[in-house]
Amino acid sequence: MASTKSYAAQAATSPLAPWTINRRDPKPHDVQIEIKYCGVCHSDLHTARNEWHGTVYPCVPGHEIVGKVTAVGSHVTKYKEGDTVGVGCLVDSCRECDNCKEGLEQFCSNGMVGTYNGQERDGSGNTYGGYSKSIVVHEDFVLSVSDKLPLEAVAPLLCAGITTYSPLRHWKIGKGHKVAVLGLGGLGHMGVKLAVSMGADVTMLSHTASKEKDAARLGAHHFVLTSDAEQVKKVAGSFDFILDTVSADHDYNFYLGLLSTNGVMVCVGAPPSPAQVPAFNLIFGRKSIAGSLIGGIPETQEMLDYCAEHNIVSDIELIAMKDINEAYERMLKGDVRYRFVIDMATL
Ligand code: NAP
Ligand code: ZN
Ligand code: ZN
Q1: In this structure, what DSSP letter does residue 139 have?
Q2: How confident is the model over 25-77, as pLDDT tens digits?
């Protein structure tokens, strides 16, 4: 066991603060990683504050992890000391169910193990995430990271990147598609970059007027301020695909009205309250609402390789570990340009 510095929430209402955890010694298939950077996902905040219920305390969030391998177990073949690697939202699954066999470990029928607030399959307890100095993960759940890209800006790909890449691929988005990305935050800005790189015509739907310039810089072809009725009217019934990344409660029906016939709205944002959608809003126009959860391990590796090839990283603001609570407050105000990343050297 290695005593490891971390930051944890001790309760839903307490700020994150220093705490010490124990990481296991590497087992034969384990990879021990020194965490260099960890991205700050809105899911970290939802979980730390128990907004989705079911948080086990103390809670060490963080599932956008990049770092260097410091040791490997005796049977590890994929990685060696010194390799640059990443860990995303999953650290284990059964590997035997149909979903696991298809590389959809996030949908493991026997329950995937989240990088934090998960339960280890061997019964050894709660998992602790990336707001810490190191982590030990089975090699099957460790991703290979290219040294071509700035490491701190790669970190958010491990959740924000794969969460937006996966639905774009699943719905085969490309040239000729009119895509809208709803919400310009961590997920949204990756959604814009990726959809643009795949050749789609991309509109940013945002409730923050001051983000218009950034949307253009990120590659969005159009910008619609969702509070401006005139702008919204112009795009009614026009999108083939809406990627909804909004973290707060909002009216899905408003955005269904922007879909064209056969249009699909994919929810990746996970607001705490249930939504009400009258069937008629789907019936007229044969529209669909779907959801998507991160991505499996093979697709996460595919996404990392794709981003290395296309030079795609996250736009980040590097923060010190001690500033995490302030970062959460800023994230709630929509004041993120566009992902906070913690420099673990500051812990
Ligand atoms: P984020 O950086 O905080 O971005 C959320 C964005 O939503 C904001 O920047 C804002 O964009 C928009 N927004 C916020 N409040 C709003 C409101 N009241 N009305 C309309 N728009 C609002 O969060 P994130 O890290 O990208 O995460 C987004 C959501 O995805 C969270 O719920 C998170 O838990 C979830 N998530 C899901 C998965 C998955 O696998 N499905 C994975 C990761 C995260 P504008 O200012 O442009 O409007
Ligand atoms: Zn996340
Ligand atoms: Zn499984």
Answers
A1: G
A2: 999 999 999 999 999 999 999 999 999 999 999 999 999 999 999 999 999 99
Asked if residues 65 and 38 have their Cβ atoms less than 8 Å apart, the reply is: yes
Atom in ligand 1 nearest the alpha carbon of residue 332: 3
First CA to last CA distance, the chain: 20
For ligand 2, the distance from its centroid to the CA atom of residue 204, given in whole angstroms, is: 21
**186 C-alpha to center of ligand 1: Å?**
7
Our answer on whether the CB atom of 184 is closer than 6 Å to any ligand 1 atom is yes
Q: Closest Cα to atom 12, ligand 1: which residue?
A: 183
Would you say 256 and 287 are in contact if contact means Cβ atoms under 8 Å apart? yes
Please report the DSSP string for 142-168 in residue order. -EE--TTS-HHHHGGGGTHHHHHHHHH
**337 pocket-lining for ligand 1 (C-beta < 6 Å):** no
Q: Which ligand is nearest to the CA of 103?
A: 3
pLDDT in tens, 294-331: 999 999 999 999 999 999 999 999 999 999 999 999 99
Distance CA 133, CA 224 (A): 41
Q: Residue 186's Cα: distance from chain center in Å? A: 8
Q: Is 100 exposed, middle or buried (0-12, 13-18, 19+ CB in 10 A)?
A: buried
Asked if residue 325 lies in contact with residue 183, where contact means CB atoms within 8 angstroms, the answer is no
